[in-house]
Structures are given as structure tokens and as C-alpha cells.
Amino acid sequence: MQTWDGKQVWVVTRYEDGRAILADERFSVDPTVPGFPEKNIAYLNTIGQDRNIRTIDNPEHDRQKRMMIQDFTVKRVAEIRPAVQTLVDQLIDDMLEREAPVDLIEHLAIPVPTTVICELLGVPYSDRDFFGERAKALLAAPTAEAAKVAGAEMTEYVEHLIDLKIAKAGNDLVSRMVHQHVLPGTYARADLVSLCRLLLTAGHDTTTGMIGLSVLALLRHPDQLRELKESDDPAFVANCVEEFLRYLGTTHAGRRRVALTDVEVAGHTIHANEGVIVLNNVMDRDDAVFADPNRLDLHRTNTRVHTAFGYGIHQCPGQLLARMELHVVHSTLWKRVPTLTLAVPMQELHFFEDGSNYEVTTLPVTW
Ligand code: HEM
């Protein structure tokens, strides 16, 4: 395939080939390695160049990931869950008080992950519009200039946040990273800035996209939606969430890698410094693994082996959080608003296709 900047790269679509590459450390995520296939002009000028777990290889990757992982454990996610439940109930109350139609993206799909990322990082919720707009620009601004301006503002914001946490620690990731690693000298302040920029961008757009599209997918599959409405089984809801992740494939720009040496893949030689785009959304529709893969099947028994969160050492650390958020949304929304339906014909919906995450931009609903 030819990328936006004219590079010739390999595209990998088969499940086994893709997993083999993502688990193979002869493929690098480092954008400074010649041949690396960057996603777009915004990435090239901002977070693509940041040095953090997303853009470094081992052994440094694992060292840095271990430092932050305590904020993503089953225990920490369970701690955050009651607040997410309260929030979802509150957002649904607010929605029901409004006059329909209401945009479910603005009133549910955005605030849930945004609040969670604020809670996780110890960022005031009142700053959400500020960092939300910069995050969007970092992921997909159309020009280098716009991306750079947003990047500089995001950095200034994060530097200030770190100063606040140095002065007064809270129960959050930034405070822990500052006091356990930056101040003792095992982690550079510049690396923490870059990690925060990553978390403020990676952490909520992805989940927003998934909430919006999963609600839409259910509305388009009324028989399966009926089952979900009637179920009180948390394990069934959990399986539905896995199937949404597999079926919707929202991180559709692919996992980007560059070969560090010549590697054989499925009978082809990928040469050193050739770029590879592993399309995990297409891998999750591989019929060698998933029977009738283009069908949404909430009872699919092997759906959990999907690669929506990637595979290998760069697998998403936020996956338990994202699963929990989706679980709370789907076990609450349909019970509280069983008559929820689209307020406009399907053809009138707009989808955002140009960034890292595939999303429905607005979802007008009525009940
Ligand atoms: C439904 C929601 C989400 C999806 C589909 C998703 C998807 C992904 C994927 C596919 C990767 C792998 C990138 C690669 O291998 O090139 C990834 C990495 C990452 N995700 Fe997520 N993610 C989601 C939610 C979150 C959340 C909630 C957070 C944080 C709060 C988060 C933080 C990260 C970080 C920091 C990385 C980089 C990890 C590394 O390179 O070691 N993500 N995510």
C-alpha cells in the first residue's frame, strides 16, 4: 500500500500473521527508525514524535509500562466502577429530563470516558473541553501548524498539572508517577509529560467511539438487543462487550511497525526498514478464526480472542477500564431506557473516518 506521505508499506490482514508480527520484537514501534509508517500529518508533528511506551521498544518499554500499570489493575478498575455507575445513572437522568431528540454522543459517549480519564489522572473535570479539543487536534489535525499549536498547549497544560501534583499529591496516576519515580530520579519529567499527553489523547476518544457505535449496532440488530434488554447476566453483558470490540474495529488506522531486520512473514520477506500496517480490525474479521465474521453475534464463544486492544507488549493498558465503562453503559442504558431508538434515519448519520478512531459523530436518539 502507499501511505499519505508516499511510502510503500506492507499491509497485514490475516489474524495469525498479524499476531506473529505484533509479538515479534524484530518489528519496532519507534517512529525515528527510517521507514516507519506514520499515521498522518498530525501524528508526525505531535504525539507520534513523543517518547513514551507507545513509541519505544524493549527493554525500556517494559520498564516504563511497569511503573504505570498499578493504575490499571483489576483492583483499581473495581475502585473506579461505582463512580462510573453513579455517573451513568446521572447522565441518563439528565438525558431523560431533556426533550428528545438528544445526542447520545454528547450526553453519554463523551462524558463517561472523559470523567474516567480525569479521575485516573487527577485532572479537574472542568478542564475537559480544553484538553478534549487539543486531544482531537493531536490525533487528526489537518495541518502540521494546527497540530503543533495544540501540542504546545497540551504540553503547557501537563507541565502545570505536574507542578500541582508536586505541591500536593492526590490518589491518581500523575501524583504516583511524580512522587514514586520523577522526584526520586528513576523517570524523567519529560517522559511523564509525554505519557500524560498520550493518556489524555488515547484514553477517551477510543472509548467514546466504541460506546456510540455499540449503541448504534444494537439498534440495528433489534433481535439481539431484545436479548440484552431481557438479560440479568453480567457474564452475557461482558460477552456482548467483547463482541462489540471485535465487530466494530474502531481503531481502524492499524498498528504501525517497521522491520529492524529482514523477516519472513507468510512466505514474503519484509526487509529491514520497510513499514508494516497490521490491520487488527480486519484480523478480527478473519474467517479462519471467527465463523461468519461479518455477523454481530452476541453469543459468539471465542470473541474474546479479538485484537481490538492490540497484541504483544504494546497491548492496551486501558482495556480493563474500557471494558468496565462499556459494561456499565450497556447494563444500565437498556434497562433504564428500553424504548431508546434512533431519532433520524440511519442514512443521515455521519461517521468520522479520517483519524485513528472510527466514530459516529452524533447519535440523535428518542425514547
Ligand atoms: C475501547 C477503548 C480502547 C481501544 C479500542 C483501545 C485500543 C488500543 C490499541 C489497539 C492499542 C495498541 C497500539 C499498538 O499496538 O500499536 C492501544 C494502546 C494503548 N492504549 Fe488503548 N484502547 C482503548 C482504551 C484505552 C484507555 C481507556 C486508555 C487509558 C486510560 C488507553 C491507553 C492506551 C495506551 C497508553 C496505549 C499504549 C500502550 C503501549 O504501547 O504499550 N486505551 N489501545
What's the short story on this structure?
InterPro entries: Cyt_P450 (IPR001128), Cyt_P450_B (IPR002397), Cyt_P450_CS (IPR017972), Cyt_P450_sf (IPR036396). The protein has 367 residues and is α+β, with helices and mostly antiparallel strands.
What are the defining features of this structure?
iron, Cytochrome p450, alpha+beta, 367 residues, single chain, binds protoporphyrin IX containing FE, Cyt_P450_sf, 11 strands, 50% helix, four-stranded mixed sheet
Q: How would you characterize this protein structure?
A:
- The mean pLDDT is 93.
- The chain is globular, with a radius of gyration of 20 Å.
- Helices cover 50% and strands 9% of the residues.
- It starts with 8 loop residues before the first strand and ends with a strand.
- The chain has helices at residues 15-22, 41-45, 60-68, 74-97, 104-109, 111-121, 128-140, 144-167, 173-182, 189-202, 205-219, 222-230, 234-248, 280-283, 319-336; strands at 9-12, 27-28, 102-103, 255-259, 263-265, 268-270, 275-278, 341-342, 351-352, 359-360, 364-366.
- A 4-stranded mixed sheet has the order 1-7-4-2, covered by helices on one side.
CATH architecture group name:
Orthogonal Bundle
Report the mean per-residue pLDDT as an integer. 93
Number of helices: 15
**Superfamily at the CATH H level?**
Cytochrome P450
Structure summary, number of beta strands = 11
Shape, principal axes of CA atoms: globular
Low-confidence segments, given as residue ranges, are: none
- The portion of residues forming beta strands comes to 5-15%
State the CATH topology. Cytochrome p450
**Quaternary status of these chains?**
single chain
From the N-terminal CA to the C-terminal CA, the straight-line distance is 45 Å
Helix content: 40-55%
Can you tell me the number of structural domains? 1
Rg from C-alpha positions? 20 Å
